[in-house]
Amino acid sequence: MAGRVTQADVARMAGVSQATVSLVLNAAHDRVGEATRRRVMDAITRTGYTANPLAQRLARGRNQIVGVFTYEPVFPSTGADFYFPFLRGIEAEAERRACDLLLFTSAPVVDGRRSLTAQGRAQLAVTDGCVLLGRGEDKAELARLSEDGFPFVFVGRRELPGGADLAFVGADYARATADVVGVLLSHGHERIGYVGAAGDREAHRDRLAGYRAALREAGLRPLTLDPAGLTPDEIVDLVLDNRLTGLLLAESHRAEELRAAAARRGLDVPRDLSLAVLGQPELPLRSELSWTGFRIPREEMGAQALALLADLIDGRAVDRHRILPCAPQPGQTVAAAR
Question: Does 57 fall in a domain?
Answer without folding.
Answer: no
